[in-house]
Amino acid sequence: MTGPSDPLRRIHEEWRNRVAAEYRSAALTAQVVHWTIMAALPEELVTRALRIVQDELDHARLSHDCLVALGGEDLPAVLDATALQEPVTEGILAALVDSVTRNFCLGETLAVPLFNAMRKHTTHPAARKVLTRVLKDEARHRQFGWDALDALLELDVDGVTARVQQRLPSFLEDLRQAYAPEGTAEPLRADERAAGLLDLADYQSVFWGTVSEDLPRRFDNRGIEMPVPSSVDG
Ligand SMILES: [Fe+2]
Ligand SMILES: [Fe+2]
Question: Most-buried pick from 15, 18, 46, 171 (CB within 10 A)?
Fold first, then answer.
């Protein structure tokens, strides 16, 4: 049974969170499928998004298999239904621009180097199996995001550019709080790294590397200026 003094507690909690996060990705991508159809974007984008829904369901199932293989079957993954959708506050098109920008252009672009870093130290077979599959898919998910953004820009270049520029600061700040909170954490044990966990210092360095080079360059190529988030530690 997992308890506060259980040496496997952090491993189990992390994999339980990953089950929920992957499942949420499936739900949010399904919403993007619907909105992409409503916005009459090219059918090939809909087809690619449908495949991503299945990928994310696969990631969730494999992550759960990994949680069980690591002995965490007592820990049910709790799903918050309200988190399984993005809000529509200013119409479908704005919601689609927001979700593509936040969950794909930012989220999936950051996911690629993060999963790469995680997989480097992972030796546990169940964890390695998930991370290998996820890493194989994420570059395609990232590409979907930028291609969908391009299609939206083609639809309304001024409106979409303005919307993305307006939303970027808060999206980036949410991402920074999630992946690179300030401060330090006790380094992980070798067995935790072997089970696919990543040190806070590695999260921070991947986050800052991505927001200072890869992301601004990709937005800049589309005429969108991305503000680099500020950090207390500079
Ligand atoms: Fe995923
Ligand atoms: Fe993904």
Answer: 15
CA of residue 3 to ligand 2 center, whole Å: 31
Residue range(s) defining the domain that contains residue 16: 9-178+187-220
Give the end-to-end CA distance of the chain in Å, rounded to a whole number. 42
- Please count the structural domains in the chain: 1
Burial code (b: 16+ CB inside 10 Å, e: under 16) for 2-31 equals beeeeebeebbbbbbebbbebbbbbbbbbb
* Residue 84 Cα to ligand 1 middle (Å): 14
Task: Express each pLDDT in 192-230 by its tens digit.
Answer: 999 999 999 999 999 999 999 999 999 999 999 999 887
Tell me the CATH number at 134.
1.20.1260.10
Report how far ligand 2's centroid is from the alpha carbon of 141 (Å): 5
* Residue 3 resides in a domain: no
pLDDT digits (tens, 9 = 90+) for 137-189: 999 999 999 999 999 999 999 999 999 999 999 999 999 999 999 999 899 99
